Structures are given as structure tokens and as C-alpha cells.
């Protein structure tokens, strides 16, 4: 792995509410209630986050990536290399 590589970071969305099944998208009450699997809500029964990111730097045993849609302190469960090219469907 080196700077410039794309990887998949799997996180545990530790602040997620596992009891929530519907949310107002983007936290806006004027949006209709929508199932969490149709939104980007962190609240979900299985709070795994999947993030495709770029390796920015590897320094002093630390991996710096970005951009990533996670808050500081979000536990990382696993890191995987991106295999092959993304296809448009």
C-alpha cells in the first residue's frame, strides 16, 4: 500500500442507534420518513460503514486517508484494497 492507492475502510458506526428503522433524510423534518437503508443515516440495525478513500500518506505507522465520511474516533474494523475498476451500471 502506498500514497495514492484507493482502499476500502470498514468502520463501526459506534454512535449509531440500532433501534431506528426510519429517519427524515438529512435530519430535515420536512423530508418524509424513509427507511434507513435508503438513506445515508448512520442509524441502522447493523452499523457498519463502508468508505472508499484514497491513501494520502503513510507516516510513523499511521495511515492517513481521505476524504472519509466518519467522525473522529470512529473505530476501524478492517481495511481492504480496491480490486479492479468501478463499473457504471
The radius of gyration computed from the alpha-carbon positions, rounded to a whole number of angstroms, is 15 Å
The overall pLDDT, averaged over residues, is 91
Q: Could you estimate the helical fraction of the residues in percent?
A: under 10%
For the sheet with most strands, the description reads: 4 strands, antiparallel
Strand order of the largest sheet: 5-4-1-6
Poorly predicted runs of 5 or more residues: none
**Count of DSSP-assigned helices:** 0
In total, the number of strands is: 6
Beta-strand level of the residues, as a percent range? 35-45%
Straight-line N-to-C gap = 28 Å
Q: Which descriptor suits the 3D outline?
A: elongated
- Class derived from helix and strand content: mainly beta
Order of helices and strands: EEEEEE
Write up this protein.
The chain has 89 residues and is mostly beta strands. The protein is built from no helices and six strands. A four-stranded antiparallel beta sheet has the order 5-4-1-6, with no helix packed on it. Strands 2-3 form a two-stranded antiparallel sheet. Strand 4 and strand 5 form a beta hairpin. The chain is elongated. It starts with 5 loop residues before the first strand and ends in an 8-residue tail after the last strand. The relative contact order is 0.35.
